[in-house]
Design brief:
157 residues, alpha+beta, nine-stranded antiparallel sheet
């Protein structure tokens, strides 16, 4: 069995009803593993000043228009780590602009825009799940454990 995680981190609090599909709060809660095994439309939690949105169907992750509509001028980080398909990547947004995107699939560069970020340049590892977790920590200050251990509310479109 492989690892699957993709989502979006937005600085501050967002109104999850503004996510694509205009979901409603189902009242149910899940952990990270349940969010990707069901899967749900979205799972949303607040973690140390960031809104963490798990996005199993990839409805918002890497959709620049949707990310910018949610984040405005705040910082946001989209990420994907899929060990089975060997797909890893992230996109960084700040000041209402996409700054950097890089995605590798099956060891090949699939998408890249923007210059290499200082946090990215400091990492010597290949783009894999550890790299993604290190980028998350470097850019947001959140360790993966806090994201993975949060209790998420299920939002259904």
């Amino acid at each position: 069995m492989g690892w699957t995680a993709n989502g979006l981190l937005v600085e501050g609090t967002i109104d999850a009803a503004r996510l694509p599909g205009h979901p409603g709060d189902s009242g149910a809660t899940v952990d990270l593993a349940q969010a990707f095994s069901r899967p749900v439309d979205y799972a949303v939690a607040e973690v140390d000043g960031w809104t963490s949105i798990l996005d199993p169907h990839i409805l918002v992750t890497f959709d620049d228009d949707a990310v910018l509509a949610l984040s405005g001028t705040r910082r946001a980080l989209a990420y994907a780590a899929h060990s089975v398909s060997d797909t890893y990547g992230f996109a960084w947004y700040s000041g209402g602009q996409p700054i950097r995107r890089i995605i590798y699939s099956a060891g090949e560069l699939a998408d890249e825009t923007g210059g290499v970020l200082p946090d990215e340049a400091r990492l010597e590892a290949d783009l894999d799940e550890d790299f993604i977790f290190d980028i998350i920590a470097g850019l947001t200050g959140l360790g993966w454990g806090k994201i993975a251990d949060a209790t998420y509310r299920v939002w259904t479109a």
